[in-house]
C-alpha cells in the first residue's frame, strides 16, 4: 500500500494563517502610515513655505515700494521740475542757477539720509546733463541717456522701472537701480534714478529659518540669483527648473526637480511690478526624515508585536491540538488491530465528543468480534465432530462392502460345492449375525451424523445472527459519521453568514467614507474610522475563507471515513455470503444423510428378515445352492449400492473438511484484532 504523504499540522496551519494575516496587516498599516506621514509632511512644508514665500514677497515689495513711492513723489516735486526746465530751456523762473542747484542738492541729501539703503540718487536730462549725490567721478564724455535705466524710464514714462540686480565690483554688494521719468506737459524733461543697496534685504531673507533644512531664494526677472545659498549673483536661467519657473504664467507654484542626484522641491511666489521670484527650496530627504523615523519606530513595534503574537499562537494552538494528538495516537493503535486501547480525552467540545463516540465504536466492534469468536469455536467443534463421524461411517461402509463381497464369494462356493452347504450355511448364519450387528451400528452412526449436521446448522444460524448484529453496529457507526458531516456543513453555513456580514460591513464602511468625504474637513476623522472598519471587514473575510478551507479538509476526512465504513460493510457482506454457502452445504449434507438413513433402514429390515429366516435357510440349502448364482448377482448389486453409499460418505467428509477450512480462515481474520478477553 502506498504511504500517504504527511501534510501540515493544524497547529502549523493556525500559526501560518494568523502570522500571515498579521504581517499583511502590518505591511498595509506601515505602507499607509508611511505614505500619509510623507504626504502630510510634504503638504505641511509646502503650505508653510507658500506662506513664507508670500511673506518674503511682501517684504521685498514693501522694501521696494518705499523707493517707488519716493521716486514718484520726487519726480513731481517743484524743485526738480524747475531744475530740469532750467537745464532744458535755460528758464530760471526768477531764481538763480545756484538756488536751483542748491534746492536739488538739499532734497537729494535728505533722501540719502532718510533711506539708508540708497547709495546714490541722480537726475539726468535728455541733453546728457547729470546731477548725482553724493558726487562721483564719471568718465569723460559719460552719456546717461545711453544707460539702461534712462532708456527704461523714457520708454515707460508713467511707471517706476527697476533694473536687473547686479553685484557692485567695488563693494561686492547687490545693487538695483530704480528710475522714473520726469514729465512736464507729458513731455520728457528728465529721469530721476536711485541706486539701492540690497544687502540688508538679502541678509534678512537669507537668515530666515525655514525648517527642514530649507533655504530662501530670490531670483531676478532675468534669472539672476539675488539671494541664494551658493550661487548669489549668477544667472540661473540655464537650469530647467528655473526656466520653467520664469516662463510660467502662474504667479506662484511648486516645482519638483533633481539637482546633482538629489531630489528637491521649490515653492515660489512672484513680486508684482518687478517680476522677481521669492522661493523656498527643500531637500526631499530632509522633508521625509521625520517620516523615516516614524517608519523605523513602527517597524520595530510591529516586529515585537509579531514575536509576542507568535508565542501566544504557539501556546494556544498547542493547547487546542493536544487532545487531537492524543486521539490520533489512539486511532493509530486501533488501526493496527489493537482494540484494547481507549481515548483518554476529557474535553467537552467537538474533540471530546468525537473521542467519546470513537470509544463507543471500539466497544461495539470488540463486542461483535467476541461474539463471532465464540460462534467460530462452536462451528469448529461441530466441523471436527462431523469429520470424525464421516470417517467412522466411511470405515463402516468399507466393512459392509467387504462383507457383501464375502457373501458373493460364499454364494459362488455354495453353487460349486453343495457338500460344503452345511458348513457354508453355518458360516452364512454367522455372517448374517455379523451383518445384523454392523447394520444396527451403521444406523446408530447415521443418526448421530444427522444430529451433528443439525447442530452445525444451528451454529451457522447463530453465526449469521452475530453477523447481523455487526451489520447493525456498522450502520450505526456510519450514521454517526454522517451526522458529524452534517455538523461540519452547519459550521460552513455559519461561516457563510459571517462572510455576508463582513461584506455588508465593508459596504457600510464605504458609504461612511463617501459621506465623510462630502462633509469635508469635519468628516476627515470619521473617514479614517470608516477606512479602518473596512480594512477589518476585509481581514474578517480573509480569516473566514481560511477557516472555510480548514472545515473543508475536515469534511473530506469525514467523507473518507464514510468510504472506509462502506469497505468494512462490504467485507462483512462477503463473509455473510460465505456463511450462507456453508449453510447450504449443511442442508445438502442433511439430505444425503436422510437418504443414507433410509437405505440403512431398508438394509436393516432386510437383514432382520434374513436373521429370522436363517433356520429355514438350513432346510432349503439345496434350493439355495441352485439359486446361488442369483444370490451372487444380488450381492453384486448390493456391492454397487454400497459403493454409492461410500461415495456419499466421502462427500460428507469433504464438506466437513471445507467447513473446517472456512472456520480457520475466519479465525485468521479474527486474530488480526486484539480485544479484551471477557471474564
TrEMBL record:
Organism whose genome encodes this protein: Rossellomorea marisflavi
Coiled-coil region: 625-679
Bilayer disposition of the protein: Multi-pass membrane protein
Similarity comment text for this entry: Belongs to the methyl-accepting chemotaxis (MCP) protein family.
Residues passing through the membrane, by range: 298-316
InterPro entries in the cross-refs: dCache_1, HAMP_dom, MCPsignal_dom, Sensor-like_sf
Subcellular location: Cell membrane
This protein's record includes keyword Transmembrane helix: yes
Domain HAMP: residue ranges: 318-370
GO cellular component: plasma membrane
Protein name (Swiss-Prot/TrEMBL): Methyl-accepting chemotaxis protein
CDD domains: HAMP, PDC1_MCP_like, PDC2_MCP_like
Keywords: Cell membrane, Chemotaxis, Coiled coil, Membrane, Methylation, Transducer, Transmembrane, Transmembrane helix
One of the GO BP terms on file: signal transduction
Pfam families: dCache_1, HAMP, MCPsignal
Ranges of residues in domain Methyl-accepting transducer: 389-639
Amino acid at each position: 500500500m502506498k504511504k500517504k504523504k504527511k501534510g501540515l499540522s493544524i497547529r502549523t496551519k493556525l500559526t501560518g494563517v494568523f502570522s500571515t494575516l498579521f504581517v499583511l496587516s502590518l505591511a498595509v498599516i506601515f505602507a499607509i502610515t508611511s505614505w500619509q506621514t510623507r504626504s502630510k509632511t510634504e503638504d505641511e512644508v509646502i503650505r508653510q513655505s507658500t506662506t513664507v514665500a508670500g511673506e518674503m514677497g511682501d517684504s521685498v515689495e514693501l522694501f521696494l515700494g518705499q523707493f517707488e513711492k519716493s521716486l514718484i513723489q520726487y519726480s513731481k516735486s517743484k524743485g526738480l521740475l524747475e531744475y530740469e526746465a532750467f537745464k532744458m530751456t535755460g528758464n530760471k523762473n526768477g531764481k538763480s542757477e545756484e538756488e536751483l542747484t542748491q534746492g536739488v542738492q538739499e532734497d537729494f541729501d535728505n533722501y540719502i539720509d532718510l533711506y539708508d539703503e540708497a547709495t546714490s540718487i541722480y537726475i539726468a536730462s535728455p541733453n546728457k546733463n547729470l546731477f548725482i549725490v553724493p558726487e562721483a567721478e564719471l568718465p569723460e564724455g559719460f552719456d546717461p541717456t545711453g544707460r539702461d535705466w534712462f532708456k527704461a524710464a523714457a520708454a515707460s514714462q508713467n511707471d517706476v522701472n527697476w533694473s536687473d540686480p547686479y553685484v557692485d565690483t567695488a563693494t561686492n554688494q547687490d545693487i538695483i537701480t530704480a528710475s522714473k521719468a520726469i514729465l512736464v506737459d507729458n513731455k520728457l524733461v528728465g529721469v530721476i534714478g536711485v541706486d539701492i543697496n540690497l544687502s540688508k534685504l538679502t541678509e534678512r531673507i537669507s537668515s530666515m529659518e525655514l525648517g527642514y533644512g530649507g533655504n530662501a531664494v530670490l531670483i531676478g526677472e532675468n534669472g539672476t540669483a539675488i539671494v541664494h545659498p551658493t550661487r548669489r549673483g549668477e544667472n540661473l536661467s540655464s537650469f530647467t527648473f528655473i526656466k520653467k519657473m520664469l516662463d510660467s504664467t502662474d504667479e506662484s507654484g511648486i516645482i519638483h526637480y533633481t539637482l546633482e542626484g538629489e531630489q528637491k522641491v521649490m515653492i515660489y511666489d512672484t513680486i508684482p511690478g518687478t517680476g522677481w521670484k521669492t522661493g523656498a527650496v527643500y531637500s526631499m530627504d530632509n522633508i521625509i526624515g521625520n517620516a523615516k523615523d516614524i517608519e523605523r519606530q513602527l517597524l520595530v513595534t510591529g516586529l515585537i508585536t509579531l514575536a509576542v503574537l507568535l508565542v501566544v499562537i504557539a501556546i494556544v494552538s498547542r493547547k487546542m491540538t493536544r487532545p487531537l494528538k492524543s486521539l490520533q495516537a489512539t486511532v493509530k493503535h486501533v488501526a493496527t488491530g489493537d482494540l484494547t486501547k481507549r481515548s483518554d480525552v476529557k474535553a467537552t467540545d467537538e474533540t471530546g465528543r468525537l473521542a467519546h463516540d470513537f470509544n463507543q465504536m471500539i466497544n461495539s466492534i470488540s463486542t461483535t468480534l467476541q461474539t463471532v469468536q465464540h460462534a467460530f469455536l462452536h462451528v469448529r467443534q461441530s466441523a471436527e465432530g462431523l469429520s470424525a463421524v464421516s470417517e467412522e461411517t466411511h470405515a463402516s461402509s468399507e466393512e459392509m462392502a467387504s462383507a457383501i463381497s464375502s457373501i458373493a464369494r460364499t454364494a459362488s462356493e455354495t453353487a460349486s460345492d453343495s457338500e460344503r452347504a452345511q458348513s457354508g450355511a453355518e458360516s452364512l448364519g454367522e455372517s448374517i449375525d455379523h451383518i445384523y450387528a454392523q447394520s444396527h451400528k451403521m444406523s446408530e452412526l447415521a443418526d448421530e451424523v444427522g444430529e451433528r449436521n443439525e447442530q452445525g446448522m444451528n451454529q451457522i444460524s447463530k453465526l449469521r445472527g452475530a453477523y447481523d448484529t455487526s451489520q447493525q453496529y456498522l450502520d450505526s457507526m456510519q450514521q454517526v459519521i454522517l451526522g458529524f458531516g452534517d455538523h461540519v456543513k452547519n459550521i460552513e453555513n455559519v461561516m457563510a453568514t459571517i462572510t455576508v456580514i463582513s461584506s455588508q460591513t465593508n459596504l457600510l464602511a464605504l458609504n461612511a467614507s463617501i459621506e465623510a468625504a462630502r462633509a469635508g474637513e469635519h468628516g476627515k476623522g470619521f473617514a479614517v474610522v470608516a477606512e479602518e472598519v473596512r480594512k477589518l471587514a476585509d481581514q474578517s473575510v480573509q480569516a473566514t475563507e481560511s477557516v472555510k478551507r480548514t472545515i473543508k479538509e475536515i469534511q473530506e476526512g469525514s467523507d473518507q471515513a464514510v468510504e472506509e465504513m462502506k469497505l468494512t460493510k462490504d467485507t462483512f457482506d462477503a463473509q455473510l455470503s460465505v456463511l450462507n454457502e456453508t449453510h447450504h452445504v449443511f442442508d445438502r449434507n442433511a439430505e444425503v444423510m436422510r437418504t443414507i438413513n433410509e437405505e440403512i433402514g431398508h438394509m436393516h429390515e432386510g437383514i432382520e428378515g434374513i436373521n429370522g429366516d436363517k433356520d429355514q435357510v438350513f432346510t432349503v440349502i439345496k434350493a439355495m445352492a441352485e439359486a446361488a448364482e442369483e444370490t451372487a448377482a444380488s450381492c453384486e448389486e448390493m456391492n454397487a449400492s454400497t459403493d454409492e453409499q461410500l461415495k456419499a460418505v466421502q462427500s460428507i467428509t469433504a464438506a466437513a473438511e471445507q467447513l473446517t477450512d472456512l472456520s480457520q480462515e475466519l479465525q485468521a481474520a479474527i486474530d488480526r484484532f486484539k480485544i479484551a478477553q471477557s471474564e
